[in-house]
Amino acid sequence: MAPAQGPTGKDPMLDTTQTARDPLLWNPDIAPLPRQKRDWTWITLAAVWMGMVHNVVAYEAAAGLMAIGFSAMQCLLIVWTAYCSLFVAMWFNARAGTEWGIPFCVLIRAAFGPRGAVIPVAIRAVVAIFWFSVQSYAASQALDAIAASLWPDWSSLHLPDGTALGPWLAVTMIWGLHALVAAHGIHRIRNFELVAGPLVLVVAGAAALWAIRICHGTGPLFAIPSTLHGSALFLKGGAAVTSIIGIWASFAVNIPDLSRFVRSQRDQAIGQLIGLPVTAVIFTPMSILITSATLVMFGKPIWNPVEILMRIHNTPLTLAGGITIIVAALSVNVAGNIVPAAYDLLSLFPRRLDFDRAGITVILLGLFVAPWLWFDHPQTVFALLGLLSAVLAPITGIMLADYYLVRRQTIDLAQLYSFSGLYAGRRGWRPSALAATGLTLLLLLPPALLPAGTLPGQDAINAVSWFLGIATGALLYTGFNRHPLHRPNDL
User: Fold this and answer.
1) What count of other Cβ atoms lies within 10 Å of the Cβ of residue 279?
2) What pLDDT is recorded for position 3?
3) Fewer CB atoms inside 10 Å of the end CB: C or N, the chain?
4) Could you tell me if residue 364 is inside a domain?
5) Which contacts (CB < 8 Å, 24+ apart) does range 460-463 have?
6) Each residue of 88-107: pLDDT tens digit?
7) Per residue in 326-371, pLDDT tens?
8) Structural domain count, the chain
9) Residue pLDDT, tens place only, 172-217
10) What residue ranges are annotated as transmembrane (predicted)?
11) Tell me, what DSSP letter sits at residue 414?
């Protein structure tokens, strides 16, 4: 079969009579999506991103930035820079999903080969399941605290051995809610996100207006000057941008999982623009305003929204705020973690799973992670997730270089589902992608793992590690595939 020409605007679908496709690489849920089934508009994608950006981790991010010494306006600039950078990477990487209707786990085969793709797919699945577990357990703690404030007897519930029953009931309910939302495929998830994303923004806006009334203005936090200057401002600012990006770095890899449902490139671009940098730069000052109000009311800034609800002692507000926090956690988890991890598991076990079963498997694996055992040590958790995100940076660069520089936006869809096709490389592995990933990690990981001051330029490398990882991975991969002694598909 001749390579499909793209981007063209015509439907480049895989022929379902194609006998060359391997059952270990093909599943109806990861097959190319026909254009007539791509019904997401820019509103849909913007709502999905709104639901993901509005979460407790993003809310508390400003707290960490201000604690380092940044002013409120510098926090806004850092957030804007991080999300604009993410938008650019995701916009480019999402285009392939929208054009060809395939998820990340299939698209990555062009660069790494059908067997080599297992490595980035497995890494992405691990990141998604860990994030799912973290967000879900945080939501269960919020539900437990809210239930205790609304029903005093909740805290007195115990198992026969004396173990508090309330937290386990909260875990059960939160995991069950995730299963309910994720059941019946992507269309139920889409409908949930269309409500959840805007709802969280409306509630946050109302809370920000309440905060302005309490503070009689923007509040004391906006008046605190920066304590960082010169090189310290540059290095810490770069590290802060990289940290914010780290929350979503893995999604820069698998954005095709969502963009494959969008009807046009225009919808994809507008939806992500509104849902990412625009929403983030609106949401960040809301979190600072609300925290300013807590400084006025309680004499100290409180960045945890659950603690704020507990201190206000207002039952209707506690109920409304608690539901919003839980909806926000569900929103980011379903679209940001369950969907990509489900596709990743589908590509690893295509003959045993469909999308619904894969989603339930992700939820169950999140339980086996047992976050209650290590949740009190968040530095360890986020250090691990940060390293995994660093590993994904060169993969992002390789995907972009493969699609735009090596393939010139041309893909033969049928051969993405074959071990012996155009993208098979050497026995299913493409050494150029593996070598580019390995060499880039040799540059990124030592500065990140070794104690500060061990290596020259260590702080500068860490400050721009995500950008450096993308650029280095892309340059190395492109260089390997332009070697005059080899054809690109051999490497």
Assistant:
1) 23
2) 43
3) N
4) yes
5) 460/235, 460/238, 462/239, 462/242, 463/234, 463/235, 463/236, 463/237, 463/238, 463/239, 463/241, 463/242
6) 999 999 999 999 999 999 99
7) 888 888 888 889 999 999 999 999 988 888 899 999 999 999 888 8
8) 1
9) 999 999 998 887 777 777 888 788 878 888 888 888 898 899 888 8
10) 40-59, 65-92, 112-134, 164-182, 194-212, 232-253, 274-299, 319-346, 358-375, 381-406, 433-454, 460-480
11) G
pLDDT score, position 298:
87
Q: Tokens standing for 111?
A: 């660069």
Q: At what angle do helices 42-53 and 315-333 cross, to 10 degrees?
A: 120
Q: Is residue 145 part of a domain?
A: yes
Whether 28 is covered by a domain: the verdict is no
Nearest to 196 by CA among 61, 297, 331: 331
The residue behind tokens 């983030």 is: 280
Q: What pLDDT, on a 0 to 100 scale, did the predictor assign at position 20? A: 67
* Mean pLDDT taken over the chain: 85
**Cβ atoms < 10 Å from Cβ of 453:** 8
Contacts with 454 (C-beta within 8 Å, 6 or more apart), sequence order: none
Please tell me the pTM assigned to this model: 0.86
Which residue is listed with tokens 């929103």?
331
Distance set, CA 223 to CA 70, 209, 210, 270, 423 (Å): 12, 18, 19, 34, 57
248 falls within a domain: yes
Domain residues for the domain of 257 are 39-376
